[in-house]
Amino acid sequence: MNGLSQRELAKRVGVTNSTISMIEKNGVSPSVSSLKKVLSGIPISIGDFFTLELEEIEPESIVYKAEEMPDIGSNNLSLKLIGARHKGRSMDLLRERYEPGAETGSEMLQHPGEEAGLVISGEIELTVGFQVYHLKAGDGYYFNSQRPHRFRNVSDEVCEIVSANPSV
């Protein structure tokens, strides 16, 4: 779609050509952080990536039922994208569900803009730069998401978060 070869994309984002090939062939399921890294070279937001094949809906959708929210997470991490069909979306609003032990990946995430969220239930460990924070239900966060960051559920309970960040 963007006229890039696997080799050129791999070089742009600092991964091997075989990694791009395996992702394209569904031979590997990349972590959220790895997928964001690959998509940064196109560029396309992770939300737009998962909704490219959704049909145009007329008129503009206002309400999104739970079953209409695509899950863009992997492994024990569910990331339900709210408003996926909304064309020209300027932000990604996510309902995040971290099973015990789930994380966004071993690699730190970085993307343009700011990120904010509210812990609805459970606990989450948030690392931003070299600072580690432990958030519980009712706690929130807001930071420049160009700073390296990651999320990890270190408790034995499910953690649910509602978060927002800009669509890139």
Question: If you had to describe this structure to a student in words, what would you say it looks like?
Answer:
It is a single chain. This protein has helices at residues 6-13, 17-24, 32-39, 46-51, and strands at 77-82, 91-98, 114-121, 123-128, 131-136, 140-144, 149-152, 159-166. By secondary structure, it is of the alpha+beta class. A hairpin with a 2-residue loop joins strand 4 (123-128) and strand 5 (131-136). The radius of gyration is 16 Å and the shape is globular. It starts with 5 loop residues before the first helix and ends with a strand. The model has no long low-confidence stretch (mean pLDDT 85).
Q: What ranges have pLDDT less than 50 throughout 5 or more consecutive residues? A: none
With helices defined by DSSP (H or I, 4 residues minimum), what is the helix count?
A: 4
Radius of gyration: 16 Å
Give, in order, the helices and strands: HHHHEEEEEEEE
Helix-residue proportion: 10-25%
Give the helices and strands, then pairings.
Layout: H1 6-13, H2 17-24, H3 32-39, H4 46-51, E1 77-82, E2 91-98, E3 114-121, E4 123-128, E5 131-136, E6 140-144, E7 149-152, E8 159-166
Antiparallel strand pairs: 1-2, 2-8, 3-6, 3-8, 4-5, 4-7
Helix pairs in contact: 1-2
Structure summarized in a few sentences:
This protein has 168 residues and is of the alpha+beta class. It has helices at residues 6-13, 17-24, 32-39, 46-51, and strands spanning 77-82, 91-98, 114-121, 123-128, 131-136, 140-144, 149-152, 159-166.
